Amino acid sequence: MTSLPSSVLVVGSGGREHALVRALLASPARPRVLCAPGNAGIAQDAACFPVAADDVPGLVALARREQAAFVVVGPEVALSLGLVNALAQAGIPAYGPKADGARLEASKIYTKEILLKYGIPTAAAAFFDDAAAAIAYVRARPAPIVVKADGLAAGKGVVVAATHAEAEAAVRTLLALHPASQISNLKSQILIEDCLTGEETSILVVVSGRDYVILPTSQDHKRIGDGDTGPNTGGMGTYSPAEVVTPALLEQIDREIVRPSVDAIAAEGIDFRGTLFIGIMLTPAGPSVLEYNTRFGDPETQVVLPRLENDLLALLWAAATGHLRGIMLKIRPEHAICVVIAAQGYPDAYPKGDVITFPPPQSGVTFIHAGTTKNTAGEIVTNGGRVLGVTALGPTLRQAAASAYAACDALQCVSKYFRRDIGARQLTRR
Ligand code: AMP
Ligand code: GLY
User: Fold this and answer.
1) Whose Cα sits closest to atom 4 in ligand 2?
2) What is the pLDDT of residue 154?
């Protein structure tokens, strides 16, 4: 393998990117780490540049100007817009798929077609661009039923409808909100699929063509409220490992889902080099694919990376340059938890600019920044819906959770909100 890059630019501004920056800085190769646009926490660790994550020409110019030898892309929007294609044209290697691979996240219909074509387990589905036909289909299926908009919708494009009436309303709303599916170039705009039941797990796979390694397992908590109630969010907390994914189940997931997915993507002519994040429902009939994402998860990354003993820079560089074969992961036995601190009101309207006062550092606990910035007085203030991820490692999940929650309680911010039950499902299972 070629020698490791001496400088790396991380694109994005969330908790995922802060976790990536931290892990890259821990590389024995001691790279210079840059970030665009970053946040107030990332700026304490790495040089940040005010270039937006969707400004493809701006990011290419920045990478050139700062002589970044490698770019690691966080968010999906940049990938869909072809950031990695543009960097390749400029001769800059990057970790993350090109636009053809990013379509696996950007178009749910495209992904469903691939899953069905290659016989990968997933819920039965049909595609529509017409309300009357979609509603006729809904009426002929049992409720609950799931209605999804085709394109990227920041978590707002999926409705799990408990009743037929709710499903019909969702059909009308989603068809009206997503009139043209530009990314997918498909005629259909929504898909309607059977509702699956079970626990969800996030399987993050570092892929390089037909080679891959599976990162430590994790589970997210998508709803805003304790006990999985209220609206969906980007993710309110995670833990790793997800013990519900036993070694035997992980082997089944690998055999029935990961290997076939990687092979299907390659067979479609896509040279995928990046993270394939497979959202899986563990149904009574076996694991079933809910979705592909083509990037690291947020807040999954915050619990997965601290458990990885490997040099992240070496791992991502190997994937980006086609040298992943033979690399084995070393996973720490500790449990990791991330409790997301959000601004009260999220995922709807929430305040910005509230001062955050951090408690003294505590061993094993890390404040990963997401929506933070500095005000004119130089104080760190809230600047987004998900503000921080309080991440802790411990010999057991219970100990990790106790450390993280002590830090959540000690942190001061008038608008802080967090779930009290991150990890509870796993803690009460035994
Ligand atoms: P997606 O973006 O497609 O993963 O959907 C977002 C969330 O909606 C998932 O994490 C699930 O909680 C839920 N969901 C999606 N599809 C289904 C399904 N077929 N059955 C049950 N829940 C689903
Ligand atoms: N935490 C879910 C996601 O990153 O999509």
Assistant:
1) 297
2) 63
Tell me which residue has its CA closest to atom 5 in ligand 1. Answer: 158
- E strand or H helix at 77, and its extent? helix 76-80
Which atom in ligand 2 lies closest to the alpha carbon of residue 298? 4
Instruction: Say which amino acid occupies 219.
Output: Q
Tens digits of residue pLDDT in 265-280: 999 999 999 999 999 9
298 in contact with ligand 2, CB cutoff 6 A: yes
- The total number of residues shown for the chain amounts to 430
Q: Which tens digits make up the pLDDT trace of 396-405?
A: 999 999 999 9
Whether 236 and 317 share a structural domain = yes
Q: Which amino acid is at 346?
A: Y
pLDDT of 158-216, one tens digit each? 899 999 999 999 999 888 875 554 544 445 689 999 999 999 999 999 999 999 999 99
CB-ligand 2 contact for 76 (6 Å cutoff): no
CATH of the domain at 277: 3.30.470.20
- 118 vs 332: CA distance, rounded Å: 34
Instruction: Show the domain range for 48.
Output: 7-99
What residue type is assigned to position 94 of the chain? Answer: A
Report pTM.
0.96
